Amino acid sequence: MAILVTGGAGYIGSHTVIELVKKGYEVVIVDDYSNAKPEVLNRLKELTGKDVPFHEVNICHKEALREVFEQHDLDAVIHFAGYKAVGESVAQPLKYYSNNLNGTIVLMELMNEYNVKKIVFSSSATVYGMTNEAPFTEDMPLSTTNPYGTTKMFIEQFIQDQYVADNAWSAALLRYFNPIGAHESGRIGEDPNDIPNNLMPYITQVAVGKREKLSVFGSDYETHDGTGVRDYIHVLDLAKGHIKALEKVLASTGVEAYNLGTGKGYSVLDVVHAFETANNVEIPYELNDRRPGDIATSYADVSKAKNALGWEATYSVEDMCRDSWNWQKSNPNGYDD
Ligand code: WQD
User: What's the whole-model pTM score?
Assistant: First the structure.
């Protein structure tokens, strides 16, 4: 039962690898280190006690990826690999379309050739766009506001179309809301390149003294305190959701989308205050203009994943703040420490 994890050295990928090993799966990681560091593999060995087979491969390179399919008897793929910075995707759409879409096509071609027709795909709540009202349900119409989100929507379509062409395929399209937090050991966590785009890594870098203060993007949204509301989910809950989805695709065929969130929305200031209370640190901030492309409110209806996968999130926003800080204060420079 070897599971190929593309992007397995990344933030969500590495946390999922730990859960897979804990559940007794054989794991193979491919990663090109475009948004990850080799040190992650050392930390995975420390935390799992295993040398997880690793191949430094960009999945666009078909012959290199073929080697992985040749060397390992794969049963399924968990597909994380892809660029993920919303702002960068607006500035460099072709880089995103080329890498995320071509990479997935190459991966799926090889899956077909080697009769590996089970996939768990890392999608995103961003596919719900700006026209739906939260809580979002999986049957809502999809739309996107940036090329990163468009690649997620297109890949969902690739997988749906492949199943129509060949009913032997089985897929779970996991629409993440806002993953934050870190493994309780503080040995793996989120380590963004350059200036963090996302809220929590920015907060933890303020807390550790790398950034002066948090810029709150917008204070005039129609929310309880004017700042953006999101459904934050602990990365460990997310990892466990991938295991449940994998079990489902291994045991069935067909394609289903699932929201992976908590079903609760917290504003930016709610998170700042939760972080300050959980960790007894102060987070200086200033209220600024909205960030283009942001929506006011996003949170999940989580009933489908609960009913169909037997999964629901268990960690609180305080747990998420505590674990994010535990990672950052133990690794002020991320994996460069
Ligand atoms: C959360 C809230 C911001 C930074 C995106 C992608 C999604 C997923 C997670 C990709 C918003 C506010 C943020 C800051 C702020 N995957 N904010 N100051 O935009 O909801 O989702 O990232 O990584 O697919 O769409 O997440 O963390 O960027 O923002 O005020 O410095 O925090 O306005 O309200 P987002 P985010």
Answer: 0.97
